[in-house]
Amino acid sequence: MSAQPGAVPSDPEPPRAGWPGRAAELVSDLSGDRQMFYVPWGKAMMWIFLLSDTFIFGTFLTGYMSVRMATTTGWPNPSEVFALTIGGVHLPLILIAIMTFVLISSSGTMAMAVNYAYRRDRRRCAALMAGTAVCGALFVGMQAFEWSKLIAEGVRPWGNPMGSAQFGASFFMITGFHGMHVTAGVIYLAIVAWRVAHGAYERKGYEIVEIAGLYWHFVDLVWVFIFALFYLW
Amino acid sequence: MEGQQHPVGLYLKVWGLLFVLSALSYLVDLLHVEGLLRWTLILALMMAKAALIVAVFMHLRWERLALVCVVVIPPAALLVLAGMMATESDYIFSLRSLYPR
């Protein structure tokens, strides 16, 4: 086994088929003297970071649930609040639907970028990552539009003309934090894509693309929950 | 072979499936499905999308069980929190209804 930085150490217990085999593999990994996770350290750290982020968004959504359940005033109908009129046609929730499709597409291109990275197809990988970043930037742009529209309509963290005062606080907190994650992801992906295109990982290997991908898919995953629990509920 | 390598076709299929599931959850709102059916559909479609992203796009399906457990088990604590907060919120709601301002 080569001692390259970031290389995966040799597996002491190869995975076996079936649940008894997987359980034996788990016991063997947990009782290992030297290490527990047979993945590059950066990937293990990214997963642990994402776990902590899950708790941040989990507590935000729980807080939103609490204020929505406890309020005695009517909650604004998201379907109408986020409706747009395009070309004279009234379309409920249309912007959010477009944002969802853009983010899912960016996840698709990211998954393919990881694939081409491991095949050492640098040009395709960098192009797909750049495409992912562009979709992310588009998403943030649409979110900025949505925020401006709501602010112009008088929605504030402490009140709004449509209903329960808690609506604004939940909305700005949850979508703001998510938008910040998307923005950070766009910058992260742009840097990694630039370095991939210039061959910075030819010697080290391309785990970094998979790790950046984990972060990006997580941002998409959080949106799945926000879309269902905040916009559709 | 190095790292996680799977056929591109699989990613395209999951991508398409995520599109269909998102369209369906948008339709739930568009067609004004109400009541218990609405909550069930929203949650089922949400969980299906989340599972696809985590299992295939994030490759968790092919990881060793030790890593899978670290990622999947702790978030269960959030369900406990949500359960406790739901009880608490019900109580606050009943107090607010009993003593309106």
UniProtKB/TrEMBL annotation, chain A:
SUPFAM superfamilies: Cytochrome c oxidase subunit III-like (SSF81452). It is found in: Cell membrane. Keywords: Cell membrane, Membrane, Transmembrane, Transmembrane helix. PROSITE patterns: COX3. Residues 46-233 form the Heme-copper oxidase subunit III family profile domain. The chain crosses the membrane at residues 44-61, 81-104, 125-145, 165-194, 214-232. It comes from the Bacteria. GO terms for biological process: aerobic electron transport chain. It is a multi-pass membrane protein. Pfam families: COX3. InterPro entries: Cyt_c/ubiquinol_Oxase_su3, Cyt_c_oxidase-like_su3, Cyt_c_oxidase_su3-like_sf, Cyt_c_oxidase_su3_a-hlx. Its main location: membrane. Heterooctamer of two A chains, two B chains, two C chains and two D chains. Belongs to the cytochrome c oxidase subunit 3 family. Cytochrome bo(3) ubiquinol terminal oxidase is the component of the aerobic respiratory chain of E.coli that predominates when cells are grown at high aeration. Has proton pump activity across the membrane in addition to electron transfer, pumping 2 protons/electron. This is Cytochrome bo(3) ubiquinol oxidase subunit 3. The gene is coxP.
TrEMBL record, chain B:
Coiled coil: none annotated. The chain crosses the membrane at residues 12-33, 39-58, 65-86. Pfam families: COX4_pro. It is a multi-pass membrane protein. It is found in: Cell membrane. GO terms for cellular component: plasma membrane. Keywords: Cell membrane, Membrane, Transmembrane, Transmembrane helix. It comes from the Bacteria. This is Cytochrome C oxidase subunit IV. It comes from Pseudoduganella albidiflava.
